[in-house]
Structure formats: structure tokens, C-alpha cells
Specification:
The complex is a heterodimer of chains A (422) and B (361). With 422 residues, chain A is an all-alpha fold. In chain A, 57% of the residues lie in helices and 0% in strands. Chain A has a domain of 89 residues: Butyryl-CoA Dehydrogenase, subunit A, domain 3 (Up-down Bundle). The N terminus of chain A is likely disordered. Chain B is an all-alpha fold and 361 residues long. In chain B, the strands form two sheets. A two-stranded antiparallel sheet of chain B has the order 1-2. A two-stranded antiparallel ribbon of chain B has the order 3-4. In chain B, helix 4 packs across helix 5 and helix 12 crosses helix 14. The chains are: A mainly alpha (422), B mainly alpha (361).
Amino acid sequence: MAILRNELRPFSGARYIGLTGFVVLAACLGYGQTTNSCLDCHSALPDPLGVTQEKFSQDIHAQKGLTCASCHGGDPTSDDPDKAMSKKAGWKGEIDRKQIPELCGSCHSDPAYMRQFNPSLRTDQLGQYHTSVHGKRFAAGDTKVAVCTDCHSVHDLRAPSDPRSTVNPLNVANTCSRCHADADYMKGYSIPTDQFAKYSASVHHQALAVRGDLSAPTCTTCHGNHGAAPPGVDKVQNVCSNCHAFQAQMYEKSSHKKAFEAASLPGCVVCHSNHGISHPTDAYLGTGPDAVCMRCHTPGDHCDQARAGLQSGLSQLDEAIKSADQVLRVAESSGMEVSEARLGQDQARDSLTKARVTIHSFRKDLVDQDIQAGLKTAAKDLQAGKEAMVERNYRRFGLGISLIAIGMVLAGLRLYIKKIES
Amino acid sequence: MSFLRNLRNWLDERLEWDDLIAPLRKKTVPLHRLSYWYFLGGITLFLFVIQVLTGILLLLYYRSGANEAFESVQYIMTRVRFGWLIRSIHSWSANLMIFTAFAHMFSVLFLKAYRKPRELTWVSGVFLLFLVMGFGFSGYLLPWNTLAFFATKVGTEITGQVPVIGKPLMIFLRGGEEVTGATLTRFFGFHVALLPGITTLLILLHVLLVQRLGMSIPPKLEVQWTANPSEKREMKFFPNFLLRELMAWYAALGVLGALAAVFPWNLGVKADPFVSAPAGIKPEWYFLFMFQTLKLIPPKVWFIDGEVLGVLAFGLVGLLWLLLPFFESDQPSHMKRWITGLSIFALAYTASMSVYGYLAK
């Protein structure tokens, strides 16, 4: 820190040695290097014109060898501001917001150009942008909507894989929320601004931000990124099914699909909501405050009876697993080897998970198959736990008998010693 | 009773039994308020015999391969009749044996029983303690569970810190650069063939020396009894002392059975070399004082690597420990005080570092 505060006091000769070294180093570095005179001035300017060397060096473009002139034009090799920023040198000045997508696209939509930096990088971003709500509104003259730099930032733009990037999966929701959670900014668009608040409380956010599971969904996973748009009522299950494939398969064949389509209801969202998806529980099938079936169905009807049967089956298996777990836990804490039964419990839990997935078929016969398989395994594990406890008691009884026998031998030996020594 | 007498006569005619046990009949054991410390060596020997017997039984089912070891121990514990008991006794007995070996060593130290002419008894005893710890280290890996795998990894890594011979020694112990199935195979070999062979020979030498030189008398008592021989009290080794030793063995058997039945030795989770080490991994309790010391040494001491310094220091202490009797006076009235002080410090250090290591995260 003393160096930063310039508090170091080197010996006097060091000053001259340092100066000579600096001159030699500067000469060496300067040889054959292109000058970027833009940063010489702009690093000293206040925002929005200020761009420091430190900031720009973080930018992926700077790291790939591009300079200010790549976007802004001009002649960065000239120290004369008039020459450097002359129209003759192709200087464009501040990029008009209306030109940003096309300017970025001039490179990013050119596969031949982009291949030299990263052959696997997509080049359809601009095309996608034109199909997005943002792009359509932008084309219609609405400049408030997002353009490339709003999401990716500018002058310190990082690769999405960089955790500090504004479009890294961990930061996407925050980036979107800068506009979409701002009620004043969104005024006039007639869409809600509570998505971010709801998402922050959702099971998806929990998985992504808390558990660090980068495969968990964020805004762009469901809405797309460059082609961002609401999925649409009839397409919701196609979005969810990208991850929840088995649930989607079950739902596809279910009676609910036709009913929801007929009523123009948005599939998965009807029961699970969209941005604020909470962890589903068996209580969804119940009649309490968390119940979802009874929002549409009438108490006592055929579907209500089916719902009760499904919930009862799941509860029965859940209870059976918990009972077996409890006995196995006691047996294990008593030192009994019950790892096989523990493994069996994992299978029973898998059956319960499978039954919960099969619920999306809304067919009791299919759900019952999984529940019966789970109940059978849990019963076997419970029996193994009980047998382990019987074995434990048998061992302790055996120990008691052995200790009595050992005690008797000890007493006999003591008496014998006493006898021979008396 | 006549059958037993006939059998004894029959054996006597062929083995000259009476002549064989005649020296034992003549042998005596000093009788004083600290005589019970004499039982510790016998208890350690008894536990070693238990180890051999239960070890042989475990060998009937144990398989020493990375793909089979864990499953075979699991099979022993769940399917083989009384397999759980044999394995638990083997594990508990191993720990008790190391404990009684340490206790025996410190009792010998504090009673000054290592003095001339018993230097070789001490040296063979210290070697036996090292061997017993070697048994613990090699046996710990055999069930091939996660804790054992990583403890062996850390332990062999520490061996690798020894200058010059460390790296080749580590590769020799591991059977390669890493702890793999090859390590398990050779640890099994050390545990069931090499170490038992050497240990049995050393035990024979140790017991022979004890029988030959007799029991040591604490220095103060020796001075007292030399000055006033009428105060000297003794007990016949056979049968009086041996019967008492038998009682100690029976008591040890009771403790062992209780531990095995109430706290069966845990099997743990099968080792997976591709997962990261569990947090806060520690070696077995008898290595904790060394492990904790190594952890407390700074990474660099002057220009020497901290771990290297620690390993060298322990090597030097071990060597000096082995040669301790040669620094002691043979005159009971001229005992070296610093050796007693050192013994107290060693006990306090070992115990406190072990507790610290156990509690430390």
C-alpha cells in the first residue's frame, strides 16, 4: 500500500536507475506497437465519455485485439484530436442508439469474420433480435427497448461464461430486472413488473443462485435471449418440457391437455404458475390453502374423488418411507449394518418421485403402479430394519450371558488364588 | 481327575514337561503397590493373540481388491454368522492393543524398568510399538472405505516428505504414484504376512528377555530392599502371578466383547478415488498427536519446508526414544531427573495433542 500512496523513499541512486530503466522499457514496448490515443484523453474524461484503460482491458473485444476505432472509427494512431476524430479518418463519434444492433451485427452476423475468433460462436443474434419483442418494437421506433449494449454492457463487455458478465446465467435475472422490475420505466407497456420479485422467491432461483446449479432456468431459458418473447399460452409446455421431459410426456397424453387447450389455459402454468414457481408438494392435490385441483374442480365430483385417491397413495408411500427410515436410523445408530436397506430406501424414494411425475398423466392406475412398487420396497426395508433391531437385542442378550460367564470365571479364579495363597 | 493326571504323565514322559516349566516355578515377581502395572505387557500380548485368531477367521472371507474388499467386509458383517462379532472384536482389539502398548511403554518409563540390563527389552519393545502402529495403519485401509482411503492418502503423503528416501518410499508403499487397488494389495500383504512374521519374532525375543532378566523393581524400592532385604516381598510367577494375569485377560475379554456388541465397528462408505476428500479428515487416534503437530508447524520454518521439518523431528525423536536407556544411569540412586521430566512431558504432549487433534476442525 505504501507504493500506492507513493510513500516509499528509495535511495537517491535508485531514482536515476529507475528513470533509465523506464526509458529503455518504454522504448522497447513502443517499438512496433499501435498507439491508441483515444484512451489517453477518454480515460481522463467523466462519464459517459470516460473509458479507462483498466475498464477497456476487461472487454472481450479489447482482448481479441479490437480497438475503439473498430466501432467508433477514427485514427487512434494520431495524437492530434482533430485528426484522430476527423470524418476523413472515418470517425463516427457517439454511436446512435438506433444503429447499435446493426453495428454489432456487422461483425456478429458475419460467420466468416467471427470464425477467426471463435468458430463455435453463433451468428444469428441479430436475426433473432429482429424476431424478438424488443427487436420488433425497436424497428417500430421505440428506442426504450433493450438493444445489445443494454444487456451486454459496453466498453467492459465480458464473455457470457465469465461470472462477472451481465449475461452470465447467475446475473441474467438481475440484468433483465433493471428494466422489467422498474415500474416507472415499464409504464406504458402494460406488462407486470413483479416477475423478478416472484422469480427471486422461486424454486428455479433457489436452484440457480443458492445451489449454484447453472443448468437451472433463468429468464432467458424460457423466454430466449436475443429472440426474447413471452412463450405464449399454447407453447408453455414446450418450454417447460425442455427440462421436465417426463412430466410433459405424461401431460401430453392426459385429459387435462385437451381441457386446458379448449379453455385457452396455459398448460403447466395453470397449476405451477410461471415466474414464482414454488417447490411442488403433495398438498397441491389436497383441499387446503395450497390445493390447485380444487381451484377448478367441484367438491365431490368424479375428479375430486380421483384427486383424493392420488393424494392418499402418495401420502401412504411417503409415510411408509419415513417409518422405514426411522427404524433404520435407530438400527444404524446402534451400529447395525443396514446399508443394503438404506440403498433400498433410495429406490423407494425414486418410486415416490416417479409417482409424483406420473401424477401429470392424471391416471390413478399408472400412479398406483409406482406407489405399489415403492410400498413393496419400503416394507422390505422396514422389515430389514426390524430384523436388525432384533439382531441387536440378541447380541446384547448374548453379551449379558457372556459377561456373566466371564464374571463367574473371574470370581472362581479369585477364590482359587485365595485358596492356594492361604 | 485321574484322566488329567494320566494325560499329564503321558505328556511328561514324552516332553519332559516338568523340566520345561521348572524355570517358571522358580521365577518370582516383585510384590509392591505398583505391581499391577506388570499386567499391561501380558494384556497387550493377549490382545495380539486375539488379533491373530480373529484375523485368521476374517481371512476366510476377506478379498483384497479395490472392487471386492469393501463388499467382502460388508458380507462378513451382514451374512457370515458371527462375522460382525469377529470383525468388531478385531477392530476394537487392535485399538485396545495399541492403547495398552502405549500404557505399557509409559509404565516402563515411569518405573524405570528400561535400565541396565534391560536396554534390549526396551529397544525391542519400542520396535514392537512401531510395528503395532504399522499394523494399525495397514489394517485401516483394508475395508477400502472413504475415511480409510483418504487417511492412507494423507499418511503416505507425509511419508513422501522424508528427504531423499521419502518419494521412493511413498511409491513403494502405494505401489505407484497414487493410492489405488495396488496399495490395498500390498497393505494386505504387509498386514497379514510381513508384519505378523516380524512381530512374532520380536515378541518371542521380548518375552524371552523379560523371562531371562525377570521383572524390574522401581529404583526407590530397589534401594530400600537392598538396604533391608527382610522387607523384600515376592510372588511366585507360576501359578500366582499367571492366574492374576489370566484374570486381567478375562477382564480384557469382557471389555472387548462389550465394546464389540454395543458399539460394532462401523463399515463406512465405499472408497471412491474420484470424489474429493471429506472435510476435516483425520487419521486414527494413535496418529493424531503427530498429525496435529504437523498441522501446527508453519509452512516454512526459516528455509526448511514445515512438513519436512516435522517429519525429520519425529524421526529424530523416535531414534532418541529408542536409545533412551543408554542415557540412563544403572545406579538406582543416580537416576536422571531429566528423563523422568521428559517422560512426563512426552505423555502430556501426546495426550493433549491427541485431544486437540480430535476436537480441532
